[in-house]
Amino acid sequence: MAKSLFEELGGRYERQGDYLIPCLSVPAEEEQPIGIWGQRHMNYLKQYHKVTYTNLFTNGRLNAYLVDVDRQAQERFERLIEGMKQTQDITEQLKAENALEWTGKMNNIRACARKIVYDEIIYA
């Protein structure tokens, strides 16, 4: 009997009853911790871009991709916060003089930066 394309590419079958089932496995990839940004992007891919998620997963590149997205998002988030702090003149002196005002402004900046990161990286 002629070999199938699957067998020619190195695949093998396992007999279960009267059926031959292909032995499929996902390629192993180095596990790296995925941060919150990467997890949110993964959920977005699962829900709205299933083909991209499946391709990354089956090629064994999902974890590395999500770690990279997480790193990019975290760097962008930190740069945005620093830039906004300078623009709005939020200093350590303000923190020492009026901690409540400083906290309110910092919370506002973090919320704005988070929204920008979501729009530009996570949900893009």
From TrEMBL:
<dbReference type="Pfam" id="PF14198">
    <property type="entry name" value="TnpV"/>
</dbReference>
<protein>
    <submittedName>
        <fullName>TnpV protein</fullName>
    </submittedName>
</protein>
<dbReference type="InterPro" id="IPR026989">
    <property type="entry name" value="TnpV"/>
</dbReference>
